[in-house]
Structures are given as structure tokens and as C-alpha cells.
């Protein structure tokens, strides 16, 4: 039997698959769980990251304000569904001045929480990194890469003594290309040994792809949810699927979705500031049951929650061979 390697999260958000649904991933019936105006000055709250913290959950949220500035805010929750977001953006300490930040991921590694996000530097996007122990103070480290880069996602443990990060080299615009690469670092500061992980595929992932939540360790390899983009006469459509990466050399792909797991199909995923976007940035996993809850941005406007299990994802991956 395939298993998740990790903690038990018996109280994590969960809903059974509806009787009339045969999809591998299904949506929370209360979606969107975070509305665009959950803060007095927010235009939109989406593409955000949560982790187990204390007796509940904490997170770093992408909140664009009504001047359409992108900032990162903390949030706390008892149940992972109802969130209290801080009205003030995170103030990072460190040597770099903060220009803008979006699409955060949070990864617990060696007992600390590391935030990675798309960080403005010299007005260009690259990968910012900060560490926190309490979600109150955040120490910003050096940017991982030169511009342009997006979707920096850390692995939750070191491999061969090194930190591993997935990322997607890009350009300064609505990048019309993009593959997933992996880089290694002894100290979270100096990154190298870059390896190609996956290039774009066909169909829903034909324009570009990018890593989503922190990879989940399983008996079958690292489970990576990733977004894929298709460009049509109507613009870009963001869906997501899954891949399995080699346990020790995760730049080697064991299996990969040809069919998406989720595409934008509900009103809140299809209508918003950027129509037709589902964009996963975080996942919670309960090792004993194999349950997985995925947090994803909807139409660059609000935040949704979806569910699956390890068995459902593996079956989905197998069905397409
Ligand atoms: C990407 C990022 C994401 C966004 C997506 C769709 O380039 O800006 O934040 O969700 O485009 O607009």
C-alpha cells in the first residue's frame, strides 16, 4: 500500500468526495474559503500558503491591496478553513528592501519555517527567502537567484545534506515559456548544481509549468502538484496536475499527469481579476489516512480548498499510461 511519510493531521480540513463526483480532486463545498475582501483594504487574496502551526495552522497570504500592490500578510486558523488575516503586511528584517511579493510558499524544515515567494528586486521578479519561527518576525535572506524567476518551492528536508529548491526561470512579463528546474544549496544562500526537472507537456501544460505546494514525501517518491498553462484565443488558462519525483534525485521524474487534476470550471475560478486560473501553493497531508487538502488561488481573486487522497492521485497517474 502506498503511504505518505509525515505527521498525522487528524484535524486537518476534510470533506468526503460527493457521491455524484468521480474526479480525483474535489472542491470544498464552502469555496471560496477566503473571499477577496476579507481585509478592509484588500482587492484580492489568493495564491497563498499554509502549514500546521501550534494547535492549528498559520500561513502567509498574498493580499493585493486596492492600490493593486502585492504584499504578504500572516494569517492564523484553528481549523484551516476560517482564517484571521493580519491587516498589516509582514515587515521583513534583513539587508534587502522589500519591493513587492507574491505567490508565497511556506516549508517547515529542520524545525523552522522558510517562506519563499516571488520577490521584486530592481523591479524584476526573482525568488525571495525568509525564515521565521513564530510567524511574528521574519528574517529575510538573500534572493536565491538572479531575476527573472518565479515559483520557488523548497523540499521539506535536506537530501545529501543540501537544501533543494524547484523554480521556474522566466521573464519580466506574462512569461510565454517555462520549465521546472531544481537547484541545491548547502546554506539557503548559495544555490547551484542546477538540474532540469520537467519541460512543458501537451494540452493544459503546453505554454509553461511551475511547481505548486511543498512536495509531499511518499513511499512512491515525492508527490509534486504543479500548475500548467495553456494559451488559447481567450488568453492563458491555469490548471494543475501531479508528478512523482525520485526520492533521492528528485530532478528525475517517475510519472507525470497527462490529464489535469483540476482545471478552472466553477464561477469563482473562471470569473475574477484574471479569469480561468487555479493556482495551488500549499497542501496539508495526513499520513495515516493519505488525505490531502490543497489550497489554491482562484482567478487571481480569492482562495479555494480542494481535497484528494494519495490513492486517488496515484490511480489518476496510472490511468493515463
Ligand atoms: C502568474 C503569477 C500568478 C498568477 C498567474 C495568473 O504569472 O502572476 O500570481 O496567478 O500568473 O495570472
Automatic annotation (TrEMBL):
Q: Domain of life of the organism in this record?
A: Bacteria
SUPFAM superfamilies per UniProt = Arabinanase/levansucrase/invertase
List keywords of the entry alphabetically: Glycosyltransferase, Transferase
Q: Does the keyword Nucleotide-binding apply?
A: no
Q: Which InterPro entries match?
A: Glyco_hydro_beta-prop_sf (IPR023296), Mannoside_phosphorylase (IPR007184)
**Any single Pfam family the record assigns to this protein:** Glyco_hydro_130
Q: Which GO terms describe its molecular function?
A: glycosyltransferase activity
Give the family this protein belongs to, as stated in its UniProt record: Belongs to the glycosyl hydrolase 130 family.
Q: What is this protein called?
A: Beta-1,4-mannooligosaccharide/beta-1, 4-mannosyl-N-acetylglucosamine phosphorylase
